[in-house]
Each structure stands twice: as structure tokens, then as C-alpha cells.
């Protein structure tokens, strides 16, 4: 088990690591069919799938973060949750895309309120499963944290 003394002190880190804020650059998302999952989320969010990068198929979220879909066929996919803050003026078209491709959306993360949206924190939101079973969320306002 690592302990705190194993990690470098802040003064030992490169300046680029200390300066500015920490940002998520990319995350790998496991899928049994990377093309299907990447095309699905890109279609729902109104984005495009990028060119393959090694074993990854990227979807650029246009804020410096990339979803890198990675194909994993030999074992079950452990479902994860991914939440997307989306522009309010695009929310209705995303819901319409889900309806057009026959994907049920829900107002809650437990998927007990089908075909409904929530209105948390003065915005709108919905949850839906992607082809790999991940619980995706679109929301127009970020959660207010205490």
C-alpha cells in the first residue's frame, strides 16, 4: 500500500503540473463494440466520432475532453455512469434523437420514471442506457453541491 511519503512534494513537480487547474483530458470507456457505442453517444449528443487512435475510438466533447471507446469483448462490461452538461437549447433535440432511435430515457438514475425528464437545480435532465449498458445522463444545469 503506498504512503504519502512516496509522492513528490509540490515543489518537486514540474511547473506545468503546479500551474493552473487540473482538467480531465480523456477517459476510456469499455464497450463490447466500440464503433456502436461511440456512434450512439455521438448521435445523441450531436457530435462526431474521430479517427481511431490505436485501440481507441474517440468522441471529442469540444471542451478538451475526449471519450476514448475501447473494445473489450472477452469479459462483461462493468456499467459506469457518465454525465454530460449540455446546452439548454440542444436538450430537446437530444431527447428527440433518443426517441427517434427507440431508446427509453428516464427522469431518475434508477430508471423508474420512463419517458420523463427531471427539473433539478432549475435545469432539465434525463438518464438512458448506451449499447454497452452504461448509465448516461444529459443535464442542462450542474448539480449544486453543499
TrEMBL record:
Domain of life: Bacteria
Residue ranges occupied by any VOC domain in the UniProt entry: 23-141
PROSITE patterns reported for this sequence: VOC
A Pfam cross-reference name: Glyoxalase
InterPro entries: Glyas_Bleomycin-R_OHBP_Dase, Glyas_Fos-R_dOase_dom, VOC_core
Protein name, as recorded: VOC family protein
Amino acid at each position: 500500500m503506498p504512503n504519502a511519503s512516496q509522492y513528490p512534494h509540490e515543489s518537486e513537480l514540474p511547473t506545468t503540473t503546479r500551474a493552473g487547474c487540473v482538467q480531465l483530458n480523456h477517459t476510456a470507456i469499455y464497450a463490447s463494440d466500440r464503433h456502436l457505442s461511440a456512434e450512439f453517444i455521438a448521435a445523441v449528443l450531436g457530435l462526431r466520432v474521430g479517427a481511431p487512435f490505436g485501440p481507441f475510438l474517440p468522441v471529442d466533447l469540444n471542451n478538451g475532453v475526449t471519450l476514448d471507446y475501447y473494445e473489450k469483448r472477452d469479459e462483461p462490461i462493468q456499467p459506469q455512469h457518465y454525465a454530460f452538461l449540455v446546452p439548454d437549447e440542444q436538450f430537446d433535440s437530444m431527447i428527440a434523437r433518443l426517441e427517434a432511435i427507440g431508446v427509453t430515457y428516464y427522469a431518475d438514475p434508477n430508471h423508474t420514471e420512463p419517458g420523463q425528464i427531471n427539473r433539478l437545480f432549475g435545469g432539465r435532465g434525463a438518464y438512458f442506457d448506451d449499447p454497452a449498458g452504461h448509465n448516461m445522463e444529459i443535464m442542462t444545469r450542474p448539480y449544486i453541491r453543499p
